[in-house]
Every structure is written in structure tokens, then in C-alpha cells.
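Thread: quick sanity check before group meeting

JM: Hey all, I'm pulling together slides for Thursday and realized we never actually wrote out the predicted structure for the chain we discussed last week. Dropping the sequence here so it's in one place. If anyone has concerns about the input, flag it before I start.
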Amino acid sequence: MKLLFIGNSHTYYNDLVATVLALLEATGERSHGTMLTRGGKTLTYHMADPATAFNIKYGGYDLVIAQDRASVFDTALFEEGAAALKAMADAAGARFMLYMPWALRDNREAQHDMTESYLAFCRANDCRFAPAGETFTRLLATEAPDTIYREDGNHATPLGSYAAAVTLFYTITGRKRTVDPTKINDPGIAAGYSPELCRRIHADACHVTRLFNG
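JM (edit): ok, ran it. Output follows.
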């Protein structure tokens, strides 16, 4: 499976893409990932970048995964950018999905509107989205914010990026059942996180992916 990730620092921090690929490989899915990322940029930035159109058209990707800016989320600009990128992917014969990051640590109430915007777009345009921000919501019920948020209250810690990668994994594969991370070469286990925590993250990510994608 050949994947193109389009986004900003929430995609390239902490080797998130490599973690997604490791999860796919660990469950028998050979994969290759390419990133088009710039810190702080929106989907409208990427839709206007000639490199984006060129890569989507000629890259031979099976799946294009797009992630919008979260710190200052604008629904209208999100919809404009997502629609343009989806049209490019459709024209190239690639599937299209969205990766939704998380609201700022000190503005968690913004997560609801972001989630609703992603959900509405995906329902109207027949595509899936990886609701990483909702995985964060579930984790925050049991984990301290500084375990998944860096000091800036915006970017993820390595554990937060692992949770986002697991959410992407379930969205990409469409798995309905939780994988036991102790039974595979799970990157969270390899990083030294406890099996109990990794199981909980897999369970939360699988649950929210099913909840928002059916």
C-alpha cells in the first residue's frame, strides 16, 4: 500500500508516519509512506502548492491522507482545502481520507466543533477520517494532559503521537476488532510503554474509529 500524508507538524512530529507504517507491517500489510508537510500550514496551502498536485497525479498512491491545522481551525477553509485535495485524489484514482488532530490542551472545548466539521465533510463526500482528537479525549479521562501534550499545549508527546498513529492504523485498515499489541511487533511496546496502556490506546482508537466511521 502506497500512502501520501499531507499536513503539518501534527503529521511529522515524533516519526508518526513511521509508527503508522510499523503498525501496518506488524499486521501483515506491506506499505510505503511519503510526506508533504510544512509546519503550521493548512489544507488550503497544500491545495495551492504545485508539488501537491504533482505528487497526487503522478505518485501512484493508493491512499491520500490529509490533515488540517488544529490550533486555529476554520471550518470554511478546511472544507475548501479538503474538497480540492479529494478532487485531486479522485482524479488520480486514489482513495482519500482525513486525519483529524487534537484541539489545544487549554482549549479542549474546541474539539467538538472540529470533530463535527470533519464528520460532516466525510459523510457528505463518502470518505473516512482518523479521529485522533477523540482518542485524546478518551485518554484524558485516565491520563494526565502532560503525558500526551508537550509543554506548548499544542504538539503531542511521543505517547500522544503513538495514540494518533494507532487511530490512523484502524482508520486505514478498517479493522473492527482491537489488535492485542502484545501479540504483534507493536511500536508502543517497543518504545517501552506498558502493555496495559498500549491495550487501552488500541481499544480507544478502535472504538472512536468505529464510532465516527461506522
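AS: nice. The chain is about 55% helix and 10% strand. The beta strands are 2-7, 32-37, 63-66, 95-100, 128-131.
JM: adding both to the slides.
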